Amino acid sequence: MELAAIVCFLLALGVCVFTGASILYALIAGYLIFFGYGLLRKFTAAALLKMSWDGVATVKNILIVFILIGMITAVWRAAGTIPLIIYTAGGLIQPGAFLVITFLLNCLLSLLTGTSFGTAATIGVITMSIGNVMGISPVYLGGAILGGAFFGDRCSPMSTSALLTCTLTGTDIFTNIKLMLKNAAVPFAATCVIYGVLGSYGAAGAVDLQILNLFKDNFNLHLLTFLPALLIIVLSIFKVSVKKTMLASIVTACVLCLILQGVSAGELLQILWQGYRAPGPELAKMLNGGGIVSMFRAVAIVGLSSSYSGIFAGTGLLDGVKNKIAGLAASCTPFGSTLLISFLTGMVACNQTLAIMLTHQLCADTISEKQELALTLEDTTVLTAALIPWSIASAVPLTAVGAPALGIAAACYLYLQPLWSLGKHLWREKT
After folding, report:
1. What is the band of 203 on the pLDDT scale with cuts at 50, 70, 90?
2. Is residue 381 left, alpha or beta, with left meaning phi > 0 and alpha meaning psi from -120 to 50?
3. Burial 38-72 (b: 16+ CB within 10 A, else e)
4. What integer is the mean pLDDT of 81-93?
5. Where are the domains of the chain?
6. CA–CA separation, 383 vs 413, rounded Å?
């Protein structure tokens, strides 16, 4: 009965993926399927609803961050923060090196903030905007931003995924970070080389100064407009929580909108809710976007999928699957089996948090050493969740920066890190 429920959900998911229908339909169908499974197991509807709510409650902080991301991506545009950075840096950066610079800047900020979503919403939007002005492929830019954002999401002391992994495995986060950074050296260097080659042979050109003048003509590019971005960096260094850091930046940007950019209070509220809309088509192509409304889909996906975790835990739906993983680990190494399971849980969970919890639940017994288990989860589920096109782990960052879903294919680091770790484990098994 457990297998039938999972297969039915996967079929619904497959139909949505191949027909292009919203993944929300599959998630709604999945909830009804798993709820029905619970009823067949003689659980009451009230008990199943409580299980569902318990699952949603575990990700309430993530839902709040989504709202903040929608606001910050809009108000940074309206306040002139993004236009100032583009205007200042656009004429200085060499187009051939910009993909590498994009990856490095997103790596740096994600290490400081610990959030892939927050990174994409800030420096990701900035680098994408500059790259658009240069004529660089949004696919390449999206891949560099996504890979860089998850570099820090994997190994930052402020990362919720790193903290969740430590909690689940009972390990020390700073010991984990030290080992993760050491293991990331080769994939990180290889990613930089790849982006360097792509940038050198790409069709990017220098920034058209006439385009840059559009920013100067339409915004008051006072140095104060850089303050919202500076706050993100400074508060992150002092390890202020992500929510407080983003809120401080949003409030500052709102004040700048009212004082420097001549935005009325009514217009500001509309920008926060619906996103920024530039006055002309040329600016619109580079700056339009953001707003709380843009995050509704992500909120729905996380809310629905997280309700699954409560039902899974309460009904024991995954117990049968867990018993079969030991045999898989024996045939392709514990790391290999965890890597495979991480893709499957990412496909089902549609978000990183639930995927980590499910993968740990299913694979913990195959890796006895807790430090090894923590590193395995970081090198698999934390990164592979962003390789699932319908997962919010990739959908939210790419949507925030305005990149196509195909950007996943150009996120080199997300492939190289798991493959490098898999190769090391296979070599260890042979020797």
Report:
1. low
2. alpha
3. beeeebeeeebeebbebbbeebeebeebbbbbbbb
4. 75
5. 1-42, 75-289
6. 9
344-387 per-position pLDDT tens digit? 888 877 778 888 988 988 888 888 899 999 999 999 999 999 99
Encoded amino acid at 404, one letter: P
